[in-house]
Specification:
The complex is a heterodimer of chains A (279) and B (171). Chain A has 279 residues and is α+β, with helices and mostly antiparallel strands. Chain A has two domains: 125 residues, Thrombin, subunit H (Beta Barrel), CATH 2.40.10; 81 residues, Thrombin, subunit H, CATH 2.40.10.350. Helix content of chain A is 37%, strand content 30%. Chain A is globular. The radius of gyration of chain B is 15 Å and the shape is globular. The two termini of chain B are 27 Å apart. The chains are: A alpha+beta (279), B mainly alpha (171). The interface between A and B is large, with 56 and 55 residues.
């Protein structure tokens, strides 16, 4: 016993290292179980308070810096918008298309009626680049639960951002579609071909859609919109994810892979909407 | 209060502040979507100044804090930062951090080491990893960013009383 104590005292640095490494490894293994969710929730709730206040100051600074360049940008946007407006005025609309669109919108409206939107502001960003998560200022107290889908509006488009992965009292963490562990069942809006979209990392310019049938290649066109398919039950059907940019076709593959440019620029997110789907 | 315990608590407070700044203010300093790892720079300063034990313990708790901040894979960051804290703690008393080039090299080496360990942890524990080239590019940008920033951070940290070297040490 004395020998053992002596050994530990002599090698306390190495022994401590091993203990800490074992604890860390166990934490990784049990990360997705309920064992780790309670401490995570408590920790998140505590730290969100600090992140919220520091985040507000950071945002204030950011707004001041951005507003300087924004004036020129807005002028250009206005000019562009005026040109676009003229273009739109010249376009004659086909009545059949309008009717079709009207029908689709009605269907969407029916769907939206079952969905409650909870607006939230991003207060902090993940500190490491190999994960893509953000923290928002709404949590359990606002009715947010794990696995709720999150959307955002950018450039007049509604796009899928990701899902809630952990919830604190007044904060929650969103796993964005850019994260490598993010998977969404999706389909091409026009041709209905389905596939699975996976993130490629925070700095990748595209998401990867895989598992699309090979004969889809002839029907799919550059710029086609890809939306959530609704399969799997996590994300509602019809939320835009991205646009088809490039095909990755190998002769020996039985399915096709597509590079998808997301409609949402995840690095520019400020406000998001959490969807509370009620049956 | 025990001197070692006090040192670790104060270091953790410092790391907490670094992490808070990193997850909020440092968003404004992003280059190609990568921001400097302030908490890593602070950790290697603590480890090189105070040794293995404060280095690894602070690394472990820094990792836990980071998991709370990010909401993902509790233990992932703890594992990475514990090893970095331990390795850089081995250099205690052997290198002088007062020269500009030393913090530059230390931060660069620590970032590369973090990248390698993160990659291995992704593989060993089957945690989905980003595209390999995107990952390597990010590590390269972060390495340069951290290395450039480290001399300034080290200069600031050298003035903190509890992180000053013991009287007997000349560095």
């Amino acid at each position: 016993m004395l020998k053992f104590k002596g050994f530990i005292r002599k090698n306390k640095n190495i022994v401590t290292l091993f203990i800490l490494l074992i604890i860390s490894s166990c934490m990784i293994i049990f990360a997705k179980t309920d064992v780790m969710s309670a401490p995570n929730r408590i920790g998140m709730s505590f730290f969100a308070f600090f992140q919220n206040s520091t985040g507000s100051v950071a945002k204030w600074f950011s707004n001041i810096i951005n507003s300087i360049g924004k004036v020129e940008e807005l002028k250009q946007e206005l000019k562009q918008a005026e040109e676009e407006l003229l273009q739109y005025k010249r376009i004659s609309r086909d009545i059949i298309d309008l009717r079709k669109e009207n029908e689709e919108l009605k269907q969407e409206l029916e769907l939206l009626q079952d969905i409650e939107y909870i607006a939230a502001e991003i207060i902090a960003w993940n500190t490491e680049h190999n994960f893509s998560t953000v923290t928002i200022n709404k949590g359990q107290l606002s009715g947010i639960e794990k696995n709720m889908p999150v959307i955002a509006f950018q450039g007049g488009l509604q796009g899928l951002v990701g899902k809630i992965i952990s919830v604190g009292l007044n904060s929650a963490t969103i796993l964005t579609l850019a994260d490598a562990s993010s998977y969404v069942s999706s389909r091409f809006q026009d041709s209905d071909y389905v596939g699975l979209i996976n993130g490629r990392g925070v700095n990748s310019e595209y998401l990867l859609m895989s598992g699309v049938k090979k004969h889809a290649a002839s029907e799919i066109q550059y710029g086609d919109i890809i939306e959530s398919s609704g399969l799997g039950g996590l994300y509602p059907k019809g939320i835009a994810i991205g646009r088809y940019r490039k095909i990755q076709a190998k002769e020996y593959d039985t399915t096709l892979k597509f590079e998808i440019e997301p409609v949402i620029d995840f690095s520019r997110l400020e406000y998001v909407y959490i969807l509370k789907v009620t049956d | 209060m025990d001197k070692g315990f006090k040192l670790i608590m104060l270091s953790l407070l410092l790391l907490f502040i670094a992490l808070l700044l990193q997850s909020t203010f440092f968003e404004l300093l992003k280059i190609h979507n990568v921001k400097p790892d302030l908490s890593l720079i602070v950790l290697i300063f603590i480890a090189t100044r105070k040794g293995i034990m404060p280095g690894q313990v602070c690394g472990f708790f820094l990792g836990l804090l980071q998991a709370f901040f990010s909401g993902i894979a509790t233990g992932f960051f703890a594992l990475t930062k514990t090893i970095i804290g331990f390795v850089f703690g081995l250099t205690e008393g052997t290198i002088s951090v007062s020269f500009f080039i030393i913090p530059f090299l230390l931060a660069g080496a620590a970032t590369i080491m973090k990248g390698i360990i993160s990659g291995l942890v992704h593989i060993i524990f089957a945690i989905p990893a980003p595209d390999i080239w995107v990952f390597i590019l990010n590590v390269c940008i972060e390495t340069v960013y951290n290395a450039v920033l480290a001399p300034i951070i080290f200069l600031l940290l050298r003035n903190i009383r509890f992180l000053k070297p013991e009287k007997s040490e000349v560095y």
